[in-house]
Amino acid sequence: MSTNENTPENAANMSTETPRPEARKPRGFQDKRAHLIAAERHLVDKVTQVYAQWGFEGLDTGPFEYVDALGKFLPDTDRPNEGVFALEDDDDQWMALRYDHTAPLARFVAENWNNIPKPFRRYSAGPVYRNEKPGPFRFREFIQCDADAVGAAGPAADAEMIAIASEAMQACGAQVGDYAIRVNTRQLLDGVMQAADVKDPNKRLIVLRALDKMDRLGAEGVSELLGGGRKDESGDFTEGAGLNSASIETLLQFAQAGRDTRSETLNALAAIANQNAVGTQGLEDLSAIHDILNGLGVTDQMATFDPAIVRGLEYYTGPVFEAELLKEFKDEKGRLMRFGSVGGGGRYDDLIARFTGELVPATGFSVGISRLAAVLAAEDEGEQKADGPVVVLALQREHMADYCSIAAQLRAIGVKAEVYLGTSGMKAQMKYANRRNAPAVVIVGNQERESGKVTVKDLVAGAKAAADITDNAEWREARPGQFEATREDFAAKIKAVVEANNA
Q: Where is this region: Disordered (predicted)?
């Protein structure tokens, strides 16, 4: 016999010798089950409805862009691999998965300048990819939902974006007081950096990124990043800007100038940032935005001025804003945490100039859909929802055609339904229905078949009623949540159960 013959013994030996890969999910990526997928779709629908109501049109640019078109934040290297996921095309051009929706928009506008209305108001929703260190609610792939106005200059366009951001947060279910849109302007930052004698472009970028971490690290952590550097809890060291103590104090004083109302913050900033023409222009822009927000009905509780808001991306040139959820929750270790930022945006007047050589005013806002959906899922973690399909139990395999017909009748009237297709008995099938978050199960055995009826178990009502029953005999007698229905009316009755459970 040949040693290469494919015998059962040889196959068994090969299976033991072949190394098996470890089943593991890449860091920063999610495995999304039905409830999270549905939550993301719901949020995208709600936010895009707001954008459309304000006159924005949809646009999808696809996931890949050439690296040189993606933005100034990319490293100047032969092989771009920092911040983005890149690959080399067969024509030796590097392309990368989009980092956000704004850089692809800039490319689209430059490419189609003569064929689009100006200002061009578009919204976009879809996944973006960042090759960054992941963390809690910080993913490497996530869905963003953006609105941008290209060709719109002046404080009115920025104030409109802030108002849209507030409306989008409410559309996602946040009440006034549960969120805040925090606003700042890069002119103020530039003016203060002039006053702090920060001139080197590399140091300026480090300063921007450091100030952007004020909410997470506090004044002490930001001071370290502005100075010699900071080591985080994992031991990773982040190089600092190397500023002297006087410059650090000037920047921290500015970042901590926020007050309870926009008017009070403007007054506090006037004493700090009004030291040069750039800072003065920033104050004038914020004052104009404040007046327009009042006209739009956006209160101090909805949108506030916060000098610590920076937005880390380098292409912002004017006002910047960040949407923050203020609700607190406990993590898996019982620690009290705040959700933090779930969206942001700002003005980026020079992004399109990389393609055309001409400055084109633009402003936009983005909701982090994946982060917001994960946040809401964490908030609702303890709340069990019976939003799965009705499960038709398969107790007699010879009657599968009948079980399939029952499920089809339910689906025909808009009820999610499936037949159990496993090989287990009734107890395991009921356990399966519970794991599927089924609102009800349908049972047809010999007794039901002889009487021409079906038995329906309302799992939600049954669980609530069973909680008040302590005696097994009483439970068996009461059969909480269980009822019979005829073959003619069972579908309508089950639909009523499903609607009641999901009301």
A: 1-29
Ordered DSSP codes for 304-333: EE-TT---S-TT--SEEEEEEEEEEEE-TT
* 200/156: higher pLDDT: 156
Residue with the bigger pLDDT between 78 and 233: it is 233
Task: Determine if residue 384 is labeled as part of a ligand binding site.
Answer: no
Give CA–CA dist 195/190, Å, rounded: 9
pLDDT score at 371: 82
* C-beta separation of 88 from 57 below 8 A: no
Q: What is the pLDDT of residues 119-144, one digit of tens each?
A: 999 999 999 999 888 887 788 999 99
Rounded to two decimals, the pTM is 0.80
Do the first three CATH levels of 34-379 and 390-501 match, i.e. the same topology? no
Residue 148 labeled ligand binder: yes
On whether 311 is known to bind a ligand per the annotation, the reply is yes
Is the Cβ–Cβ distance between 285 and 318 less than 8 Å?
A: yes
359-368: pLDDT as tens digits: 999 999 999 9
Q: Is residue 395 within a helix (H) or strand (E), and if so which, with residue range?
A: none
The answer to whether residues 404 and 442 touch, using CB atoms and an 8 Å cutoff, is: no
On whether 101 is known to bind a ligand per the annotation, the reply is: yes
| Domain at 34-379, CATH homologous superfamily | Bira Bifunctional Protein; Domain 2 (3.30.930.10)
Give the CATH H-level superfamily of domain 390-501: Anticodon-binding domain (3.40.50.800)
